[in-house]
Amino acid sequence: MAGYFKSILTGTKSLVTGLKITQAEFFRKPITLQYPHEVLVMTPRYRGHIQLVKNPETGTHQCISCGLCQKGCPSGCITVRGEKREGVKGKVLVQYDLDFTTCSLCGQCIENCKPGAIEFSLEYNLASTRKEDFHYDLLARLEEQK
Amino acid sequence: MSSQALSQNQEVFELNLGPQHPATHGVLRVKLVMDGEYVVDAEPVLGYIHRMHELMGENRTWAQYLPNMGRLDYLSALSYNLGYVELVEKMMGIEVPERAEYIRVLTTELNRISSHLLWFGAFVLDLGGFTPLLYAFDDREQILDLLESVTGSRLTYCYYRFGGLYNDVDDDFLTGCTQFLKRLRSRMPMYHDLVTGNVILRQRLVDVGPISAEMCRRYGATGPVLRGSGVNYDVRKNEPYSIYPELDFDVPVYNECDSMARYMVRMDEIEQSMRIIEQCIAQMPQGDIMAPKVPKMIKPEVGDYYHAVEAARGTFGIRTVSDGKNQAYRMKLRAPTFCNLSLFQEASKGMLLADALAFMGSLDLVIPEIDR
Predict the structure, then answer these.
(1) Contacts of A6 in chain B (CB under 8 A)
(2) One domain, residues A129 and A83
(3) Same domain flag for A60 and A118
(4) Tell me: the pLDDT tens digits for B108-119?
(5) Is A25 in the same domain as A60?
(6) Residues A81 and A132 grouped into a single domain
(7) C-alpha angle with apex B156: B152 to B160, nearest 5 degrees?
(8) CA B333, CA B69: separation in Å to the nearest integer?
(9) Is the domain of A54 the same as that of A121?
(10) How far apart (Å, rounded) are the C-alpha atoms in residues B310 and B41?
(11) Same domain (yes/no): A98, A139
(12) Domain range B13-371, CATH architecture
């Protein structure tokens, strides 16, 4: 019988301790962000999908179509194609496709890129029900930015 | 049915737990043979999220395999990153600058705290307490924000490189860490008041799910499961790597062998990790974060290599065989939770179903890591 009352007492004490803590939380400001009404700004190092860097001087990309990004990619999600054009030194980039469905955002492509032609974007609002929506034509995206 | 009922004149029945059940925290399926409320046999069925990580290691270059390390145990991914880069550095004889070592240990320990906090919340949730999960996530979110500002990702990190780091930390990060430690220190007593001292939790955990040291040894259980059974084994102390020998920290060990002991080990580990982080911040030297000479093409000499680190859930070991090419000939990943889960079948016999689930929670399972 003594054990019965003792357990009621310890149970009540434990309950009161818990309630005290939760009660204190009741008066705190909410910490939840009301997405999508409030939107976070990503940190500069955030890894979104890759994009071509725009050179402010020339107004275009700095890619030399060497294909090292494509070669270094563990998932094979990058397709780069360059072609020789008369009067132009080196290759001219004609296609830069990214299949974001298989990208694991490891950054091997960016590290392999000698001219620094690609970077991580800060985009994260990327929901879709169609696979094709994640096949990005990075060259066309750069053109759109102009 | 081969299993016998516990009591006479009783029939046993099969119960399917999972593969989609909130208490298994992933796609783990357990085939239970039940005698009423008592577990007669529990057979874990694995493979629902098998992704052939070991085979992937054998058909891509050493550097290309790096991102896979963030996807084994996605809750303490940095420990796995660390294990792999240290293995490659060992094979190639690359010396890592001291600053990079300190940052590696600092971020790994932050990741360990975040992993334990998530376990803490989810474990109490398994036992029916919802509130602590929200408090733990509040703290964990701070760590994820800190790590995101440095690594660029929140969960599946790919931050370490052979010979150093992807990028350096700044003063803002270090100040953020100090502030966070101060905050967590003030919150730990609250967690202990709210959860550890709670009478319901104690009744659910004390003397439930006993695992002897001998059973741990037979199944190869490591980490907090082993240390909760009274064995003082921590790779950071027993086979030191990185700068751990220079740091002052204790290995929490409890002799009770029950679920409560495993709970206490993890709660104490959070405190110890905080100590390690403080020392890292205080002692961190200036300097480079990348070794000066890292070969572009990694081609280790022919041989058989092994390296182990202490991840949040136990010993993570990689054994690899190199045939001198730029890809591994064989990649074997020794995942701690796979071994920790394997003792569940034997240890859960005769338990009440609710106790067996509490016991499973105390093992801290991460299914993608078990299946690999």
Answers:
(1) none
(2) yes
(3) yes
(4) 999 999 999 999
(5) no
(6) yes
(7) 65
(8) 10
(9) yes
(10) 31
(11) yes
(12) Orthogonal Bundle (1.10)
A76 touches chain B (CB under 8 A): no
pLDDT of amino acid B1: 44
Across the interface, whether the CB atoms of A14 and B64 are under 8 A apart is answered: no
Q: Is residue A43 part of a domain?
A: no
User: In degrees to the nearest 10, what's the CA dihedral of B231, B233, B234, B237?
Assistant: 130
The answer, for A25 touching chain B at a CB cutoff of 8 Å, is yes
Contacts with B200 from chain A: Cβ below 8 Å: 14
Q: Which residues of B touch A (CB under 8 A)?
A: 60, 63-68, 70-71, 131, 135, 138, 141, 148-153, 156, 158, 166-167, 190, 193-194, 197-200
Helix B131-151 to helix B171-191 angle, to the nearest 10 degrees? 170
One-letter amino acid for residue B9 of the chain: N
The partner residue sitting opposite A17, judged by closest CB among B63, B166, B193, is: B193
Check whether residue A25 and residue A55 sit in a common domain: no
Q: Is the pLDDT of residue A1 over 80?
A: no
Candidates B202, B1, B117, B127; CA nearest to A10 is B202
Q: Let me know if residue A141 belongs to a domain.
A: yes
Express as a percent the part of chain B with pLDDT over 90: 25
pLDDT tens column, B65-92: 988 888 888 888 999 999 999 999 988 8
Among A106, A109, A124, most B C-beta atoms within 10 A, so best to mutate, is A106
Average pLDDT score over residue span B233-248: 88
Is B163's pLDDT higher than 90?
no
Contacts of A74 in chain B (CB under 8 A): 60, 64-68
What is the predicted ipTM?
Answer: 0.81
Residue-level pLDDT at B297:
82
ω before B245 within 30° of 0 (cis)?
Answer: no
